[in-house]
Amino acid sequence: MAPLILGLESSCDDTAAAVLRGRAILSNTVLSQAELHAAFGGVVPEIAARAHVEKLDLCAERAMAQAGVTLRDIDAVAVTAGPGLIGGVMAGVMFAKGLSTAAGLPLIGVNHLAGHALTPRLTDDAAFPYLVLLVSGGHCQFLRVERPDAFTRLGGTIDDAPGEAFDKVARLLGLPQPGGPAVEREARAGDPRAFAFPRPLLDRAGCDLSFSGLKTAVLRARDGALSDGALPRQARADICAAFQAAVAETLAEKSRRALAACPGATAFAVAGGVAANGAIRTALEAACDRPFLAPPLDLCTDNAAMIAWAGAELFALGRRDGPDLAPRPRWPLDAGARPMLGSGKRGAKA
Ligand code: KG4
Ligand code: ZN
């Protein structure tokens, strides 16, 4: 029988725990901190870290109870050891070390980005190598996944992540957070051709991306559309539609290039909260010349099932960490790639 793995995730604003046996997700618990941060317009690292410390044991207990198992049944503990907001990562790693020491269980430190990137193997049994596009509030990169512990980064954002851009655009237009769903809703009533927003970096070879110029263009469009100091409803919808179309088209074109650079990739997968966007999913699928994999939303956004799964893959390869496992604020999946710029409100982009 496949080993029973307890996964723990606390690198941003979700405290999460999950129990997996092979590809069977026996439980997948997420305690969101959204309410704690709502008044601040973004994730406050100190508040996040403290909430993780308070909630990790409850979350792990719930996950085991829902799975109908106890700590005695668990074969290994997998924990996010980075990249992310360091206070939260420390809280998770300390808790996992305590559990593994007390129960005499093997400990496996997992890279959060590897968790996202390996999810298509959990959901669709994707065969190596495959191409994955991570698009969330904190991440934006194309990765060729070669093994559970070998990744090549083909390109990524040189400034903001797309989710960050959606959130900022929502703020500029007076829409609620998180911005992505709000902008998508508003865009339904808009005309994407009403504003000609830039398609950043399309003139540059390769698959790097940039979203901060697009945000500035939205700010200018908003100011130009003001009437008596207020933004007319239709203009707001048009700006949302045009912005979303610019992001979708840019991501699709860069995906075409990344696919062309990976002739041997068996599939193209998306991961991250932005993959929830209908227009973006449709554009990516249309750009894809091989099987297109879009995991269910609760496995696209931050969760511990992906950490347990990545842990299970590493466990099978014989990876074990000791009490010296170090929490890492930055941890690029591809150590050979040049560092990503920016640190982002959701922590390091790795
Ligand atoms: O993966 P995720 O839950 O958290 C991390 O960033 O790690 O992604 C959240 C991001 C937010 O920036 C949110 O605005 C964006 O994903 N998002 C969307 C949509 N739903 C969530 N962006 C565009 N369209 C959506 N429907
Ligand atoms: Zn994430």
Structure description:
- There is one protein chain.
- With 350 residues, the protein is of the alpha/beta class.
- The chain is 42% helix and 18% strand.
- The protein is built from eleven helices and ten strands.
- The protein has a five-stranded mixed β-sheet with strand order 3-2-1-4-5, with helices on both faces. A five-stranded mixed β-sheet has the order 8-7-6-9-10, with helices on both faces.
- The longest helix is centred in the C-terminal third of the chain and has 28 residues, at 233-260.
- The radius of gyration is 20 Å and the shape is globular.
- The protein starts with a strand and ends in a 34-residue tail after the last helix.
- Zinc ion (ZN) binds next to helix 4.
Order of helix and strand elements from N to C terminus: EEEHHEHEHEEEHHHHEHEHH
Large-scale geometry? globular
Bound molecules: 5'-O-[(R)-(carboxyoxy)(hydroxy)phosphoryl]adenosine, zinc ion
Number of strand segments: 10
User: Per DSSP, what share of the residues sits in E-state strands of 2 or more residues?
Assistant: 15-25%
Computed over alpha carbons, the radius of gyration is 20 Å
Distance linking N and C termini: 35 Å
The helix/strand class is alpha/beta
| Widest sheet: strand ordering | 3-2-1-4-5
